[in-house]
Amino acid sequence: MDDEPINAHKLLKEQFVSNLTGSSLLEIAALSTVVPAVVVLRKWSCGDNTRKNSLKKNDDALPGHKGFVHYFSTLAIDYLSIVLPVLLIFTVLAEWACACALSLVMLISILTMFKRSRSHLKAGPNELPLLRADISSYRVSVVLVTCLCILAVDFKIFPRRYAKAETYGCGIMDLGVGSFVVANALVSRQARNFTAMTWNKALMSISPLIFLGFARLISTSGVDYQVHVGEYGVHWNFFFTLAAISILTSVIRIHPKYCGLAGLLVLTGFQTWLSFGLNEYLISNERNGGIISQNKEGVYSIFGYWGMYLIGVSLGYNLFFDNSSKGKSRSSQVVKVWVLAASFWIMAIILDSYVERVSRRMCNFAYVMLVFGQNFQVISVLTLAGFISYEKNLVLEDAFNQNMLGSFLLANILTGVVNLSVDTLSASSGTAFMILLVYSFTLCMIAALAQFCGIRMKFW
């Protein structure tokens, strides 16, 4: 009898994130503009007053009380300039997302025209950093938005169209796991052509993901935490997907030059399989055929994510790490990124319209192209920071970049604590926003404190 209210409440929370259809591709494009745009504006606002050298991994810069005050006051400004606006756009200002994106684009365009010529007096074209300098900003943006959404989605203040779609369609949260795969692929060992990896090292790199996957499975089952089965299956989760990709990449080793072709072949074959009936099986309620049937979404979508990863490896290698091509400059890299972003978006729209609608649940071809389009759109906007500002990363970026996995795990723990202690479904908009403010600020402060103290969470 004591368990009935808990189970009923769990069921209500699961229904709250079920049977959703996502939002429009236009709104996804708008949200993908807002997030990097506020980062660019924050970097431009720093000007010459920002730090000339960011804190490095094992640096003892800014020691003592003055250093502590300066570091965390700068972090507070980063929070107010980046995290708070993003949180507002994803909650109370959600209906104005497209208008906000358009306003930010106009503001950046005006500032670029007025400031670019003056900035080139300070730094010649040969001093412009390569595109690799913007990748850390992009990866932090992915983690930050994911950390905000995983708790916000449990409140009514978060629009339902932003949450994960049930079968076909796409909300901004549907892009989370795909963005993690792309972000990892672009800077992976494979993309850097470090293909010589012993089996011991391969197992060491994969084992933490498997451990985290089982830890999540056991913890959610142990506290009767709500889990939407339609996402990955009964037992599967995000960490198992990442581990499976790592296993496939370790077993089937492909030179980064050929990863793009291999990825396209994998995706084409998988999409053909989907079109010949696999998609109907994956969106059905059938789960009576054993462990694979119970976790069919997670198991079969591996092929889509693997193809996505291989394409990401190829793009990372050709854009950032291939030193064989001569004359590589930031301007040429930026042009390639913008062209790729537009091309992926066009491909996503064509596939969504004429082949099969976007589906994160099965990771079909349209979803993969949308993920690449959205991610390269974020990178392309972030490249604009280099036209005016030549500074290192922001304090907020340094903090998350040093402990990316640790920050994500902490966000999951805090999300679980909030859900177990607060009735998120009955919380008012004001209460929900205050909880999200405290949660996001706590997350940023802990990440920054770890970075300031030189603490780094790394398993391998």
UniProtKB/TrEMBL annotation:
The keyword Disulfide bond does not apply. Keywords: Membrane, Transmembrane, Transmembrane helix. The chain crosses the membrane at residues 20-41, 68-90, 96-114, 135-153, 165-187, 199-219, 234-252, 259-278, 298-321, 333-355, 367-388, 400-420, 432-455. Its main location: membrane. One of its GO terms (biological process) is GPI anchor biosynthetic process. It comes from the Eukaryota. It is found in: Membrane. It is a multi-pass membrane protein. GO terms for cellular component: endoplasmic reticulum; membrane. It holds the Pfam family GWT1. GO terms for molecular function: glucosaminyl-phosphatidylinositol O-acyltransferase activity. PANTHER family: PHOSPHATIDYLINOSITOL-GLYCAN BIOSYNTHESIS CLASS W PROTEIN. This is GPI-anchored wall transfer protein. It comes from Oryza glaberrima. The gene is LOC127766537.
